Amino acid sequence: MGSRSVKTVNYILVTLVSLAMIYPVLWMISSSLKNGPEVFSTASSLIPHNPQWQNYAEGWKGFAGISFSTFFKNSLIVVIISTIGSVVSSTLIAYGFARIRFVGRKFWFVCMMLTMMLPPEIVMIPQYIMFNKMGFLNTFLPLILPTFFGTPFFVFLIMQFIRSIPKDLEEAAMIDGCTRFTAFVRVLVPMIVPAMVTCAIFSFYWRWEEFMGPLIYLQDPKKYTVALAIKMFSDPDAVSNWGAMFAMSVASLIPVLVVFFFFQRYVVEGITTGGLKG
Q1: Is 135 left (phi over 0), alpha (psi -120 to 50) or beta?
Q2: What is the pLDDT of residues 150-180, one digit of tens each?
């Protein structure tokens, strides 16, 4: 088999895999333009017989007099603040592990990495009890506050990136009169921007689609996030508005797609550089 035949087979396989991965998104977009019964009676068809564009208008109205703009606003507040907290704190922690020698450094690094193996269900109940005693229930604080103490995966990724940068650059800046923190901010941070942006993108994705946290801590519908609000269209005790639910599910993808298309080059650069040079 010649090289051209191999490339043709590879293209065919990649195309098939791509279609299999994008099919659920196409099905969701198609379902957002169908009425309730048609969603299931024509589930195998991606072309709606009579497109119901009003599903988007009905979905945007929300429920209980609360429009979906409120839910988008709540999600953006949680996502933006928690992303900033996660990236900044993880960068500082990563710098400490990568550059500063202190007693028990390896031990604490191992402890941090072990937390990545803990299922979320293990820490869910202790966290709920702690936030309940603090009086943080029905606020955004339980969703935001933990991110300001670092995210292990981000710490590891940024730390690998920092290790690929020669220490001489920081030492030269410190000889010129910079403090360690000033050298970190002015010399190191501009060089690890790809890794930081990569972490910010992942944090945005994870926080935007988070469902369990808002479900546990938020009781006031006016504070619901998008993920939690979409679930409210499905009512097991009444008629579910499937068309509006799928329509708002499609709308919820727009911020994610915008972030991805604008910053996708940083994802590749951040992961490959941190993985190859670490």
Answers
A1: left
A2: 899 999 989 988 988 888 888 888 888 888 8
